[in-house]
Design goal:
Number of strands of chain B: 10
Largest sheet of chain B: 6 strands, mixed
Number of helices of chain B: 9
Number of domains of chain A: 1
Largest interface: A-B, 19 and 30 residues
Order of helices and strands of chain A: HHHHHHHHH
CATH architecture of the domain at 1-94 and 222-259 in chain B: 3-Layer(aba) Sandwich
Distance between the termini of chain B: 28 Å
Radius of gyration of chain B: 18 Å
Strand content of chain A: under 5%
Shape of chain A: elongated
Number of helices of chain A: 9
Helix content of chain A: over 70%
CATH topology of the domain at 1-94 and 222-259 in chain B: Rossmann fold
Oligomer: heterodimer
Chain lengths: 264, 259
């Protein structure tokens, strides 16, 4: 295409825009991988972002994980009792929380809290020319703003997911302990008795993928925001919606793959 | 006539910005239609024009934020289009850019805003050296006591000053000002104009000042060019343009004075 020409419409404006969007997201991800392994690494900025994403989400993850542990145990007990399998409750809770609930719940909370915050912050920097100000100061804004946030999110979400699993199991234990005299050691031994190395690896791997997804989507939406303050709200909103959608999509794929590996 | 070299004026040095036949379009909208401009060392040039006439696009092209479609652009003897990323960054370190919106990093204090480009670009700088450089730049813009303030706590004029101080922190050879007095009251505008002159004197910079404020252009610039419909009209000193027969220039000047 000659520079300055109006681009031709191939299918319809919406379909063309959709494919252009996919292509631009693809280029954004490729650029991330090109820049992430090249110095400077901005370690201080990564630590700051890790604190923002990880430490500042601890309270929310603690409350949610704890409640999920209690509620899940409470809801599962009557069904298991009907089959005379109440003693299997720690195993069930262990499988449910470690394999699925812990990582997905953490990812959804982070998509809401972290994704929207990254999307809003970067888009606001974009519309107020702060990103251009970095460029003219010979600072690579992609490296400083995007790479640091995506790396921090990719590291912190799996750690938060592990923490969420632990808190969820504590909540479950408290509920179990309220009804019977199961010891802390026995509960955790039972909860982990059905958990294999594949389960732990798959849970960690998917939490890492969710972390990357949340970070990159938030950054992509924020970094490409337009249209002033309206664009800021739109970027934050789209960052959350798209990240949540992709988390569910990835969950389905990773579960299929891990089951295939487990039974292969 | 548009200036073709810097030897016409003995008080000025070699060309620092040299533009020939520069074109830029956004889709079907042609913003710059083959403009020519020479800025000499130590010269302050004002680019006047209506809003949306492409003035800001011009300085964004000079600093490499936008790519031109056609034409030649030399800044500090470097052909900007031919530079790779690292070379462009090296060139950018020699250019200061003051944004219309000031573009201060709102999560950082005034001190951090100024220290940031320094820390990121100059290796192995001691904390004391950073503090001294920031203090010097803030002193140059008269805001030494505002170092710990956040951008949200500053007035419009103070934000502009901090934006200029940040652009000065790396001691640039060229300053590009995008609407330095836009949205400011007449007294603050006069202070900013004075500051632009002080900066030029102290740092011996060459500047392009994008504005539609005639007072700013008159008080800060050696030469004025007008961008109309993507092309420059003949340039000259304020007094020369004031007496011109060109209807478009006359219209712009008379409208400004009525305002």
């Amino acid at each position: 295409m000659i520079k300055g020409d109006t681009p031709k419409i191939i299918f319809s404006e919406q379909i063309d825009q959709y494919f252009m969007g996919v292509y631009s997201a693809y280029k954004f991800v490729i650029r991330f991988f090109k820049e992430v392994f090249v110095p400077p690494f901005h370690l201080r900025a990564i630590i700051t972002q890790s604190y923002e994403i990880g430490v500042k989400s601890l309270a929310l993850i603690s409350v949610t994980g704890f409640i999920i542990g209690i509620v899940f145990t409470k809801q599962s007990r009557p069904s298991l009792e009907d089959f005379g399998a109440a003693s299997w409750l720690p195993n069930l809770v262990g499988i449910a929380i470690i394999r699925a609930l812990g990582p997905v719940l953490t990812a959804l909370i982070c998509a809401g809290k972290v994704g929207s915050s990254i999307g809003a912050e970067l888009s606001s920097m974009k519309v107020t020319e702060q990103i251009e100000a970095m460029e003219v100061s010979a600072i690579n804004p992609f490296k400083y703003l995007v790479v640091t946030r995506v790396v921090a999110s990719t590291i912190m979400v799996p750690l938060l997911a592990m923490y969420c699993v632990f808190i969820g199991l504590i909540g479950s234990y408290i509920n179990v302990h309220a009804g019977e005299t199961t010891s802390f050691t026995t509960f955790f031994k039972d909860a982990f008795s059905s958990i294999t190395f594949i389960d732990l690896s798959a849970a960690t791997a998917k939490a890492t993928v969710y972390g990357f997804t949340i970070g990159i989507i938030g950054c992509y939406k924020g970094y490409n925001a337009t249209k002033g303050t309206h664009g800021v709200g739109k970027a934050a909103n789209e960052a959350v919606v798209l990240a949540m959608f992709l988390v569910f999509l990835e969950e389905v794929i990773i579960v299929q793959v891990s089951n295939w590996v487990r039974y292969f | 006539m548009e200036k073709t070299n810097c030897k016409e004026d003995k008080n000025q040095g070699e060309p620092v910005i040299s533009i020939q036949g520069l074109h830029k379009s956004f889709g079907a909208l042609e913003v710059l239609k083959g403009i020519d401009l020479i800025v000499c060392k130590g010269e302050n040039v004002a680019v006047l024009g209506k809003s949306g006439s492409g003035k800001s696009v011009l300085i964004k092209i000079i600093v490499g934020l936008l790519k031109p479609d056609r034409g030649s652009l030399k800044v500090l003897e470097k052909e900007v289009e031919a530079l790779n990323g690292k070379e462009l960054d090296e060139l950018r370190l020699r250019i200061g850019f003051s944004f219309q919106s000031s573009a201060l990093y709102d999560s950082m204090s005034v001190f951090q805003n100024l220290a940031f480009p320094l820390i990121m670009n100059v290796k192995h700088l001691a904390k004391k050296e950073v503090a001294e450089a920031v203090e010097e730049a803030l002193e140059a813009v008269g805001l030494k006591d505002k170092a710990e303030r956040m951008p949200a706590e500053l007035s419009g004029g103070q934000r502009k000053r901090v934006g200029i101080a940040r652009a000065l922190i790396l001691k640039p050879e060229i300053m590009l000002y995008d609407e330095p007095t836009a949205g400011l009251d007449p007294i603050t505008s006069a202070e900013i104009n004075e500051l632009i002159n002080e900066v030029q004197e102290k740092y011996n910079t060459s500047s392009i000042i994008i504005t539609h404020d005639l007072t700013c252009a008159k008080n800060t610039c050696n030469r004025i060019v007008m961008l109309v419909e993507g092309k420059f009209l003949p340039s000259g000193k304020f007094e020369e343009l004031f007496k011109t027969d060109n209807q478009q220039v006359k219209d712009f000047f008379s409208y400004n004075f009525i305002q």
